[in-house]
Amino acid sequence: LEKLHKKCGSSSTKEKFKHMLNHIVKHNHLPDYSITIEENNVIFFTKNIQFIDINNLNRPRLKPDTIENAKKIIRPLGLDVYALESEWLEFWKNSGEPELASPDGAFINFCKKKKTPT
Prior knowledge:
Layout: H1 2-8, H2 14-27, E1 33-38, E2 41-46, H3 64-74, H4 81-94, H5 103-115
Antiparallel strand pairs: 1-2
Helix pairs in contact: 3-5
C-alpha cells in the first residue's frame, strides 16, 4: 500500500488513499482489473475481458464529440470511456446487432444509465 501510494504520486494521506482504494474495491469499476486489499498489500487481478473486433464494418461508429460528451457524463464515476464503449458494443452485439437510428444517442443513454444505481 505504501509503495503504491508513492508510485501514484498521491498527495493525499495514506489513510485517505486507502479509503479511496477501498471505494475502488467496493465498486469494482476499473475496466481491466479487480483489486483486493489484504492487510497493507494491494493485489491486482486482470479481468477476463472479451474483445470485440473493432474493425467490424457493421458495428456502430461514434462521433468524437460523443466520446467527449460521454467522458463528462461518466467522469464522477471514474469509468474509462473506451472500456465503456467496448461494453456497449458487446451489449449491442449480444442484442442481435440491431440497426440503430442514432448510435451516438444510444451510447449516451447507455452512459447515463451507468450513473443511476441499479
